[in-house]
């Protein structure tokens, strides 16, 4: 009985692992044809959580989007999109497991951007100006978001509408970015604020703040 159960479990594990590889999206996949662009060497790992509006999503070369991630352009599947560049992810990026990039107007992720798991990036938020209406039904105007090339976003970072994170910036885990982060800055906190500059700080001794 134990041997039979082990055999079944081992078979299921092997099938899950192989299925994850086979079902991932690559430039050769038919699903990749739905994207506005999907570069060679790139991979959207299976399983994903949500994936729609691919006609407004561009993925560069040699980029990896981890499993259980969400990529979406527009509010709902099938919605007419403003352009084919609602969400742009550059070359050689690594988007961590469980992360979400949700674009309605413009979210641009530069080249060589790495994120930890469960990062959330969006260009749209809710409003509460009508006190008689549920907040979830009140959409604030979209504001473009840009993540500069070479940057690193730690686990659990949230990047909110209207933010520009500069080139080669570092954002600490769990931070909520509500305002711009300059090039080469080190930012952390809720809301995130600049606590150092990589050009003057030692990597082995993070600045206090």
Poorly predicted runs of 5 or more residues? none
Which sequence of SSEs, written as H and E, runs from N to C?
Answer: HEEEEEEEEEEEEEEEEEEEEE
* Beta strand %: 25-35%
CATH superfamily: Hexapeptide repeat proteins
What's the rounded overall pLDDT mean?
Answer: 91
Could you tell me the radius of gyration in angstroms?
Answer: 19 Å
CATH architecture classification name: 3 Solenoid
Report a brief summary of the structure.
This protein is mainly β and 209 residues long. It is built from one helix and 21 strands.
Describe this structure in words.
This protein has 209 residues and is mainly beta. The chain has a single domain, classed as UDP N-Acetylglucosamine Acyltransferase, domain 1. Helix content is 11%, strand content 27%. Strands 2-5-8-11-14-17 form a six-stranded parallel beta sheet, with no helix packed on it. A six-stranded parallel beta sheet has the order 4-7-10-13-16-19, with no helix packed on it. The longest helix has 22 residues. The chain starts with a helix and ends in a 12-residue tail after the last strand. The mean pLDDT is 91.
Please outline the helices and strands.
Elements (H helix, E strand, L loop, with lengths): L1 H22 L1 E2 L10 E2 L4 E2 L5 E3 L4 E3 L4 E2 L4 E4 L13 E3 L4 E2 L4 E4 L3 E3 L4 E2 L4 E3 L22 E3 L4 E2 L4 E2 L4 E2 L4 E2 L4 E2 L7 E4 L4 E5 L12
Parallel strand pairs: 2-5, 3-6, 4-7, 5-8, 6-9, 7-10, 8-11, 10-13, 11-14, 12-15, 13-16, 14-17, 15-18, 16-19, 18-20
Antiparallel strand pairs: 1-3, 20-21
């Amino acid at each position: 009985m134990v041997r039979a159960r082990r055999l079944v479990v081992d078979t299921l594990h092997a099938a899950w692992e192989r299925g994850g590889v086979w079902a991932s999206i690559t430039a050769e996949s038919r699903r990749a044809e739905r994207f506005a662009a999907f570069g060679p060497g790139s991979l959207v790992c299976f399983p994903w959580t949500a994936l729609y509006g691919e006609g407004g999503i561009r993925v560069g070369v040699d980029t990896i989007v981890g499993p259980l991630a969400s990529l979406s352009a527009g509010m709902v599947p099938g919605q007419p999109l403003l352009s084919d560049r609602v969400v742009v992810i550059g070359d050689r990026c690594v988007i961590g497991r469980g992360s979400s990039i949700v674009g309605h107007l413009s979210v641009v992720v530069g080249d060589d951007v790495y994120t930890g798991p469960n990062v959330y990036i969006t260009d749209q938020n809710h409003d509460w100006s009508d006190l008689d209406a549920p907040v979830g039904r009140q959409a604030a105007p979209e504001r473009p978001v840009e993540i500069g090339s070479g940057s690193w976003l730690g686990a659990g970072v949230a990047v909110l509408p209207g933010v520009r994170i500069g080139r080669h910036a570092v954002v600490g885990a769990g931070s909520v970015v509500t305002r711009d982060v300059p090039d080469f800055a080190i930012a952390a906190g809720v809301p995130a604020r600049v606590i150092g500059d990589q050009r003057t700080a030692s990597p082995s001794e993070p600045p206090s703040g």
